């Protein structure tokens, strides 16, 4: 069977997890990548602790211990794969960012397409060789796209710094923004809630996130709006109001960054719930942690 020569996907899943379900401390001999579709998760990765939300991408290197607690019902797309040593130096830049927030439309489109490919069949043994090779290549493409985002620091569409690694002075501002997206958030209002001037807030966000506060607010409104489109049946107008935008401007933002109207986006990104799919005979399913 012909597979990609640099990356070989061993196993994939699109599993759902219940609130307060846990996966205990464990590690693997291969690489693991995860994309959070919905829910809220506490992840311990090595000695670091993260709170994962929809849109987060997690990259786990071999022999790195990790464990999970699912705070809300969650769905995760999970890859396990081997990488040829020739590819390792190329993707090395993303290893320093084990948790990323992905908002880039090209990346999410590839992730969605990968899951659609495995949904064509109940068992991976029924997937043809071309499809398996395509899944390998698309997974490698996603990794390379992440490398490009990291190298260009294009953080308006992908916030590359995990929340718990941010400087202490910017954390409460970000938390306030995330909790008040439906409000009329302005730079002036932020300056009244925190002991920072408008100029310093601009400087703080540019230094830590490489974007302005207004860009971050817009990014978070769009991210949350996309999440509501995918996982609720609220009307487009109700979603726009929830994220602090009017209906027309929300539609314009989605067209600009996703090249789709809200209805088109909702139709194309809803992912079906899937269970485990083994893509390689070399993968030993008994090595999987039990939740």
UniProtKB/TrEMBL annotation:
Which Pfam family, an example, fits this chain? Answer: Cupin_2
Q: Which SMART domains match?
A: HTH_ARAC (SM00342)
SUPFAM superfamilies referenced in this protein's UniProt entry, alphabetically: Homeodomain-like (SSF46689), RmlC-like cupins (SSF51182)
The lineage's top-level taxon is Bacteria
> What does the record give under GO molecular function?
DNA-binding transcription factor activity; sequence-specific DNA binding
The family database entries (PROSITE patterns) matched by this protein are listed as: HTH_ARAC_FAMILY_2
InterPro entries according to UniProt: Cupin_2 (IPR013096), Homeodomain-like_sf (IPR009057), HTH_AraC (IPR018060), RmlC-like_jellyroll (IPR014710), RmlC_Cupin_sf (IPR011051)
Keywords (A to Z) from UniProt = DNA-binding, Transcription, Transcription regulation
HTH araC/xylS-type domain segment(s): 171-268
The protein, known as: Transcriptional regulator, AraC family
Organism per entry: Lacticaseibacillus saniviri JCM 17471 = DSM 24301
């Amino acid at each position: 069977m012909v597979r990609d020569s640099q990356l070989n996907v061993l196993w994939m899943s699109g599993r759902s997890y219940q609130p307060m379900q846990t996966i205990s401390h464990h590690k693997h001999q291969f690489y693991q990548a995860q994309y959070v579709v919905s829910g809220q998760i506490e992840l311990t990765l090595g000695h670091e602790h993260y709170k994962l939300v929809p849109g987060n991408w997690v990259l786990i290197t071999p022999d790195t211990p990790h464990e999970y607690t699912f705070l809300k019902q969650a769905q995760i797309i999970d890859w396990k794969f081997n990488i040829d040593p020739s590819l390792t130096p190329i993707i090395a830049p993303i290893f320093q960012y084990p948790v990323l927030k992905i908002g880039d439309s090209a990346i999410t489109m590839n992730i969605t397409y990968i899951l659609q490919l495995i949904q064509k069949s109940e068992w991976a043994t029924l997937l043809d060789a071309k499809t398996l090779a395509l899944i390998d290549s698309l997974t490698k493409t996603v990794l390379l796209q992440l490398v490009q985002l990291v190298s260009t620091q294009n953080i308006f569409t992908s916030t590359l710094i995990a929340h718990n690694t941010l400087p202490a002075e910017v954390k409460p501002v970000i938390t306030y923004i995330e909790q008040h997206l439906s409000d009329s958030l302005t730079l002036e209002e932020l300056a009244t809630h925190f002991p920072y001037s408008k100029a310093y807030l601009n400087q703080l966000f540019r230094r830590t996130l490489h974007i302005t506060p207004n860009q971050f607010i817009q990014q978070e409104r769009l991210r949350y709006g996309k999440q509501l489109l995918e996982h609720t049946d609220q009307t487009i107008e109700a979603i726009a109001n929830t994220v602090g935008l009017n209906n027309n401007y929300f539609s314009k933002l989605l067209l600009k960054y996703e090249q789709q109207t809200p209805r088109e986006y909702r139709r194309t990104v809803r992912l079906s719930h899937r269970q485990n799919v083994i893509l390689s005979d070399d993968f030993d399913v008994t090595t999987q942690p039990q939740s």
